[in-house]
């Protein structure tokens, strides 16, 4: 599974240069197949919430890159597999969702996918596996597919072994997930000619099972490719923070906050994240990532604007950048605002908004701060705070400062003092 330095297909060359490839079942074989002409490839997204989050951005960017190079991407939404839930590397079983919840979540993640991908023609498809899984007879599935699976081999998958070692165990319902995902691969091969399944590194075992099923039943030559698990330079999992998931939906996360999330990227991650999450040329990403001192902040703003433009559109991204400039960078505005220094350590695990307002002196007590927020009079970086327990972290700071507002006339810059 070593990555060859002599790749010839433009998609794999660029994916490798951007750091998007972790494992591939047969990299040289896939490279040769892609040189023969466009291929069809897919990634699956189960509707576990009504929006995807930043943790899903890399797989979507891989589909986006595939489309850029003239191949045929399929975004597969799991209306069928959502009724089971993927157990891969989870501590416990997912709660089963109602049909109404699945329908609502499907609508939300389809919206997230449409922000990144162009489905205007059949070169890029949005497909729901409920179209075939909901029609399956269990006996027929066992006879056709179940006979092809070795239980001992399934038990050897790392994701399964980890669950079996935990107190929660693994239900038989969840154990079927790998079989259904494999069935998806074969079905997409038969319906649309898909020869490549891509996904996160946690999907390796399921992808390999699908390849084996296609080989056994259809003599198909299929491929699998996974992306690396993305963590920040400090070791945090991408897209997760004390204040919750960084959603791709503007209804769940304001566009300004999405822009700010990327703006607060650690210095050491800028070049890497530019390559993974923007369309900028690789050499430009490397140049920006190599900047030092104050100049790296300009690179962070470019990262924030480019990543936000892909997700929410260029106009919205530029509006967010301008809003940040007005809030944090206009000298006259900052000069007119009082400042309050607070230890940065307060924000390491996150600080509830009502406590922050009390600590900053914009409320005399926690109770007064709660009442202010409930009345809609509190703003964080010019965005109204909806929840008094909203967690505020260092990610909400710009140049080490957080703007707080109480009503229309009382404003304060909180400076994080390390």
UniProtKB/TrEMBL annotation:
This is Tyrosine--tRNA ligase. Keywords: Aminoacyl-tRNA synthetase, ATP-binding, Cytoplasm, Ligase, Nucleotide-binding, Protein biosynthesis, RNA-binding. A motif ('HIGH' region) lies at residues 47-56. The keyword Transmembrane does not apply. A motif ('KMSKS' region) lies at residues 237-241. It is found in: Cytoplasm. Homodimer. SUPFAM superfamilies: Alpha-L RNA-binding motif (SSF55174), Nucleotidylyl transferase (SSF52374). It holds the Pfam family S4. Belongs to the class-I aminoacyl-tRNA synthetase family. TyrS type 1 subfamily. Catalyzes the attachment of tyrosine to tRNA(Tyr) in a two-step reaction: tyrosine is first activated by ATP to form Tyr-AMP and then transferred to the acceptor end of tRNA(Tyr). L-tyrosine binds at residues 42, 177, 181. PANTHER family: TYROSINE--TRNA LIGASE, MITOCHONDRIAL, TYROSYL-TRNA SYNTHETASE. InterPro entries: aa-tRNA-synth_Ic, Rossmann-like_a/b/a_fold, S4_RNA-bd, S4_RNA-bd_sf, Tyr-tRNA-ligase, Tyr-tRNA-ligase_bac-type, Tyr-tRNA-ligase_bac_1. ATP binds at residue 240. It comes from Saccharibacter floricola DSM 15669. Its main location: cytoplasm. Residues 358-396 form the RNA-binding S4 domain. It catalyses: tRNA(Tyr) + L-tyrosine + ATP = L-tyrosyl-tRNA(Tyr) + AMP + diphosphate + H(+). Its EC number is 6.1.1.1.
